[in-house]
Amino acid sequence: MANIKALIFDLDGVIVDTAIYHYKAWKRLANHLGFDFTEEENEKLKGVSRVRSLELILEWGGVTKSAEEQKHLADLKNSWYVDMIQEMQPDEILPGAKEFLEAARAAGLKTALGSASKNSETILQKVGLTHLFDVIIDGNKVSASKPDPEVFLKGAEALGIAPKNCLVFEDALAGVQAALAGGMKVIGIGTAQNLPGANVVVAGLHEVSIELVQTV
Length: 216
Ligand code: B16
Ligand code: MG
Known about the structure:
- By secondary structure, the chain is an alpha/beta fold.
- The protein has helices at about 20-30, 40-45, 50-60, 65-85, 95-105, 120-125, 150-160, 175-180, 210-215; strands at about 5-10, 110-115, 135, 165-170, 185-190, 200.
- The relative contact order is 0.19.
- It binds 1,6-di-O-phosphono-beta-D-glucopyranose and magnesium ion.
- Magnesium ion binds near residues 13, 14, 46 and 175.
């Protein structure tokens, strides 16, 4: 028996799919700098912080920029991204996510968000899910990126639940590693091949039940 008391959810790829908006904005930035990158390369940006994403993209384009220019470029990309997420609607919630959050809370489990994004509060508000989280820990509240466990440990602490009684839902390998490093159980959202180490892997929250939570 796992004795899970709290669930911690990643945002992009678990609750909503903002990856397409990140991709469009990063692609526009790369094109603005005179190069492009592939969808396959874009996969490597999932779950990765804004600053690290820019470093990777500049490497792929063979472009070097000063720290000051990098700050400007990251801000420019974010302004385009923020414009796009203003239009997000509740129908962009991934299948089963809202229903599972509601079922979890009805079963007495605590819920937290554990995301790398600094835009998580806007996104949750646009899709109408803010009220289903007891705690929101995101890129504004942490200094170390996944696979460092900081984001999940801060979530557990804010909820007042020991890490061993927390279960994380993650779609990125760095996030699965972060959860394990924090001493938590983790359900991977994706494929077992892409998410080694996850206790269980499912295609999405529509495949998860309260019964499964207590058997991981
Ligand atoms: P922002 P998650 C991550 O969200 C995204 O997967 C990643 O592509 C993005 O770079 C990162 O948030 C930072 O987002 O630029 O909005 O601060 O999967 O950790 O919920
Ligand atoms: Mg994610």
